[in-house]
Amino acid sequence: MYTISSRNQTCIKAVMGLQLMALSIQEKQMKYLTVNPNTTQIHGSCGTVRSVLNITFIGGFISFVFIKKDPTYYVNAIEAELQLPSEGKLYYGIIRQQHFTAKLGNSFKCASKQTFGLKRAYQLLIVNMQLQAFDIVGNQFGREEECFLDQNGKAVPIAVGLSILGLLVIVLVTFLISRKKPYRGYERI
């Protein structure tokens, strides 16, 4: 869990799995660095309309900039740097787009895998995320707002289930109608 606090008030709270992926030019294959929360250093800042979460680890950092725009908040920028020890190459990228929007007092939750292209051949993968900035009460996440990917993932099984149920009803009605026809046996010609 990653938290940023100021004056005994938490302004950012986040739980997420993070992985950086970079294409090694020398080896011509993808290199993966999974961020271990137990070996990271967390720092940042709390503001009235802008708060920052910096996650530093051996070989790089990932930074999230949160913006408060009443009645919502969102991540305005994601920045990441990675130094591959095997080749000494530095990968750096920043995305300046609105992501993870939620109402103030609510948390944004997404179990689905989300991949962000930071630069060509350099990506950030986020999984099992729940985050909240500003208006955190009692150091607890507020009401959850699910991401589109999770909502869409639940809709497909429901649609398939309803389709199968509809098909079973049609088969049952057809069977019952066919049983009600009187049996005539052999007819004389």
Mind explaining what this structure looks like?
The protein is of the alpha+beta class. The protein has 2 domains: 2-146, Porin (Beta Barrel); 147-182. The protein contains 1 helix and 13 strands, in the order E-E-E-E-E-E-E-E-E-E-E-E-E-H. The strands form 2 sheets. Strands 1, 2, 3, 10, 11, 12 and 13 form a 7-stranded mixed beta sheet that branches. A hairpin with a 2-residue loop joins strand 11 and strand 12. Disulfide bonds join 110-147. This is Lysosome-associated membrane glycoprotein 2-like luminal domain-containing protein. It is found in: Endosome membrane; Lysosome membrane.
SSE diagram, text form:
Elements: E1 2-6, E2 9-24, E3 29-34, E4 41-45, E5 50-57, E6 60-69, E7 72-84, E8 89-95, E9 99-103, E10 107-110, E11 114-119, E12 122-133, E13 144-146, H1 148-180
Parallel strand pairs: 10-13
Antiparallel strand pairs: 1-2, 2-3, 2-12, 4-5, 5-6, 6-7, 7-8, 7-9, 10-12, 11-12
